[in-house]
Amino acid sequence: MAVEDIRQRVRNTLEGLMSAEEASYLMDRPPGGWSDLVTKDYLRAELAGLRTEMANLRTQLERQTTSMLRWLVPTVFAAIVVSSALT
Fold first, then answer.
1. Does the pTM of the predicted model rise above 0.70?
2. Residue 55's CB: how many other CB atoms inside 10 A?
3. Cα–chain center distance at 33
4. Distance (Å, rounded) from C-alpha 39 to C-alpha 27?
5. Which residues have C-beta within 8 Å of that of residue 71, sequence separation ≥ 6?
6. What span, in angstroms and rounded, lies between the C-alpha atoms of 61 and 20?
7. Backbone dihedral angles phi then psi of residue 39, each to the nearest 5 degrees
8. Per-residue pLDDT band at 58 (split at 50, 70, 90)
9. DSSP codes of every residue in 17-76
């Protein structure tokens, strides 16, 4: 049996249980409506956006790590020098 034949049988069954308008609503659209369909282009755009965000986060992490090390290393060496001078 062809898919269209099955769809028509289901539609006829639904129209027997509810109004034709309600049956059409159930049969003719995705559950959330046509605006909820996800296309490959949409997914590609979302992935590109995520990649951009990840690259920005990576750059930000590298800058923060570098900044922290520029402060931490001299501080540790200064502490070592001061502690050895006091002993």
1. no
2. 10
3. 21
4. 20
5. none
6. 58
7. -105, 165
8. very high
9. HS-HHHHHHHHSS-TT-GGG---HHHHHHHHHHHHHHHHHHHHHHHHHHHHHHHHHHHHH
